[in-house]
Amino acid sequence: MKTLMLGNEAVARGLYEAGCTFVSSYPGTPSTEITEYAAKYPEIYAEWAPNEKVAMEAAFGASLAGSRSFCGMKHVGLNVAADPLFTIAYTGVNAGMIIGVADDAGMHSSQNEQDSRHYAKSAKIPMLEPSDSAEALAFTKAAYELSERFDTPVLLKMCTRIAHSQSVVEPSERPEPVKKPYEKNGAKYIMMPGNAKKRHPVVEERTRALIEYAETSPLNRVEPGKDRKMGIITSSTSYQYVKEVCGDTYPVLKLGMIWPLPEKLIRDFAASVSLLVVVEELDGFIEDHCRNLGLSLVGKDKFPCIDELSQNQVAEILGMPHAAGPKLEEAIPARPPVMCAGCPHRGMFYTLAKNKCTVMGDIGCYTLGAVAPLNAIDTTICMGASVSGLHGFNKANGGESEGRTVAVIGDSTFMHSGMTGLVNISYNESNSTVVILDNSITGMTGHQQNPTTGYNLKGDPCTKIDLESFCRAVGIQRVRVVDPYDLAACDQAVKEELAAKEPSVIISRRPCALLKYVKHPGPITADTDKCVGCKSCMKIGCPAISVVDKKVVIDNTLCTGCGVCQQLCKFDALGGKKEA
Predict the structure, then answer these.
(1) Which of 360, 371, 368, 363 lies closest to 343 in space, CA to CA?
(2) The pTM is what?
């Protein structure tokens, strides 16, 4: 029976229908829901791994054992997993293995908008790229067939628009998976130089075979058009824009297998039209391939390599009527993201800003501590970089910055890649202070469990990593826990640990305010008679607080009653009795 599915949900359905039995991922927008939906099928073992490298290595192990496997991540997560990726490309697989990667053109929730297609080319493994939910399901199943037929892991590339949009799919039944036997084969799987040298020619031959397959693969198709004065090569979301704008006016070569790309198919298509146009988001990946084939075309000289495309943009460049009607005359005011009312990170960031600390930031919802009015973060690079960067910053300054510089990192991000940075601080003895913002969940991607929460992906109780014990185990003697709602305690902890002449860790612990099990006291009250309009309460940037006619106003629909603003008011204008 046909039904609507998100693209990510359709990938999970494809995993189920293809007989996948093992899924390991690290949550990252826009890929997260693939694994969350896969976990709903009891036939699939699904887990959150500490990071993407671990997830990919675990998925390879499952493939080696003879089970079809999957690991999922966002585009920057593929950077973390690049080490096993390039070597698994040499070893090949036993049972089929899919690596799901979701790009974020437009940087809706990312620190860059890199193009993951380059990884497929560089690692020399095939990549499939669906353009809607139906293809997301079908391509997932096809990826397993390719993986086992050509003895290779397969990259399945999603993007924000395909991952998070709905379209019609037609589910089918799941066959009983047949586990492939594992056979010891050191020449294939032990990548010491002598064996690896022999595997490289195998990879090159596999690429040639995949190119031949791409020439006639149903994953790539030519859609005829009425007017051959122009022909368009495209894929993924760009294909949807092209079809919405052009309909069947011009012929389209729709590429579903984005690497390796066909050669004869593209040449023949180019020869059949007067003008060749390549429409693709971000880099000119298809364009470069076409130019290497000696073809003249219109591509990134007209279409931008920055941000997402849109129907109107494609229509304007192609000289077609706008698909979405006229443009708005006035710009819509921007609504910048802010930390939620009651966010436990707010008190710690206020304290760091108050103490004029240099703050090495990290990846998570706490990155919002960088925006006004807190302006409490100096850098944000990648997962774990805050801790490692703090060490380098302090060492390079000869210790001069030790008393005023900290790193902030979330509990999930610390388990992902902050641990090794802390080991580096301990091992190389830099006097550095790390603040672990422990909100007891992976917050930014929608409340996924992590190794510090005590629950696994299914919500079952599991081993809970004790942050205090871990930090002490790697050699940090000064470890203390504070409640970020208590500004005096935060201020004391920050001052004392920065003054200490040894490495230290402050664990700022309070559950995310949006967790369903967290009980809030309820909104506080504002006494306008006592308010003098000093705006001290505005310094924390809480969206529940505003000033109207020079008097403080509390939005009762947002305020959780955390009490942080009350500690800033010297005139007792913010009150309200808290419940026990």
Answers:
(1) 368
(2) 0.93
